[in-house]
Amino acid sequence: MFKSRAVPTETPQQIHDAMARGEVVLIDVREPTEYAVERIHGAMLFPLSTFDPAGLPDAQEKQIVLQCGSGKRSEMAFRKAFAAGVLVRSHMGGGITAWKAAGLPVVSTDPSTGNVRDPV
User: Fold this and answer.
1) CATH class of 9-105
2) Can you name the residues that pair with 66 across neighbouring β-strands?
3) How far is Cα 19 from Cα 76, in angstroms, rounded to an integer?
4) CA distance 75 to 67
5) Residue pLDDT, tens place only, 54-113
6) CA distance 31 to 16
7) What pLDDT is recorded for position 6?
8) Considering only Cβ atoms within 10 Å of each terminal Cβ, which end of the chain, N or C, has fewer?
9) How many CB atoms lie within 10 A of CB 80?
10) Residue 28 CB partners (closer than 8 Å, separation 6+)
11) What confidence tens digit (pLDDT) does each residue in 40-67 have?
12) DSSP assignment of the chain, as one string?
């Protein structure tokens, strides 16, 4: 349980591996336009601008991890969830920027055609 000022942070590789094991549900708190341009395969969109922790999915036996572009907004969303008494496992440090820097795949939209590219 989160008790300190430090928000639990995991690396992109840790989150990737946890997703592959079916342990976590990844929640992207960026805005819809950002999500449309590129996203992590399997991430669900819950924009910070309208973020309501009570609306987070019931992850059943999985834990929720938050993600954004750089880690700032996902940390803010974590704090909102904590304040509302909603359990969230962690947030991904560095966001999708760190995910891509780690060489992990993203779903993207080709701006010239509008076609979705999903390497998974």
Assistant:
1) alpha beta
2) 27, 91
3) 22
4) 8
5) 999 987 789 999 999 999 999 999 999 999 999 999 999 999 999 999 999 999 988 889
6) 21
7) 86
8) N
9) 17
10) 35, 39, 40, 43, 44, 45, 46, 67, 68, 96
11) 999 999 999 999 999 999 877 899 999 9
12) ---SSSPPEE-HHHHHHHHHTT-EEEEE-S-HHHHHHEE-TTPEE--GGG--GGGS---TTSEEEEE-SSSHHHHHHHHHHHHTT----EEETTHHHHHHHTT---EEE-TTT--EE---
The distance of Cα 117 from the centroid of its chain, to the nearest Å, equals: 19
Write down the residue that tokens 């954004």 correspond to. Answer: 68
- pLDDT the model gives residue 47: 98
Among candidates 18, 90, 29, which has minimal Cα distance to 55?
29
Summarize pLDDT for 4-16 with one digit per residue, the tens: 578 999 999 999 9
Please provide the size of the chain in residues.
Answer: 120
